[in-house]
Amino acid sequence: MLYNIYNCPEGHSILSFKGYKMIHGYSERGIVNSIAYFLDANSLYVYDFVTTLGISLPKFEYNYTFIIEQSFSDFGDSDLIIIIKNNTNDEKIVLFIECKIKTYQGSFKILSEFNKISNALTTSKKIKGISSNLFVQLYYKYLLIKTSDNSDKDMSVNSIFKKNNGNSRVLGNNKIVTDAFNKIKDANDYYYVAITPTAPDEMDTNGFRCKIKELNLMPWENTYLCYWGKVKEFFDTIGANKVKEVFDYNYRQIY
Fold first, then answer.
1. Helices in 59-203 by DSSP H: which ranges?
2. Residue 195: which of 148, 150, 235, 164 has the closest Cα?
3. In the chain, what is the straight-line distance between the N-terminal and C-terminal CA atoms, in Å?
4. In whole angstroms, what is the distance from residue 179 CA to residue 188 CA?
């Protein structure tokens, strides 16, 4: 690494860096951060990234807003939210993106996730860690949008999704949370996207939608399943080296 030091009139010094800068981000949070920051700096690729996820949008000029790891209180966090506003007619589209990884020595099986929640619904028995189940995470975001006055009390919600004390899930009064909700509410369309280590030959979006339909918790038409390998291939293809570096750093951790 090479550095030059310049003296300023005030007596301070500016350290000029000549070399290679690298930031490593761990696991899915590191990947999501690198993707969001790259797309923020290179917004021409956002449309193509959304297409890579499987979502087809009309070709207009859009404004994009990214929200990373946003809490919605009792409705859980969202790994990444992309708010897309059409500059022509002010239509708004919101993508909720939930990410799952296999971990370095572990695995992620989408059918196992499905079977856990399917059995819980059949037996009406709440399972441990239900809020981290992929299908439940997506359902909570659907529930968040569909609830009146930010509570699920006016909806027919299975008891296994109630809080441990039996109370309804609420958004609460945290201003950062309510501000985020105000940004996403009243959209023309909502999309619910899962990015997982599940390869297309194991399950694709059509198979994923079939499982959503079986659970009968939310509409299946706007749900999508995307493979991490496809996401990496997209960023490799466009030369997004910073994203590639984070994938390489997390080799065998993500998928």
1. 110-123, 134-146, 175-184
2. 235
3. 33
4. 19
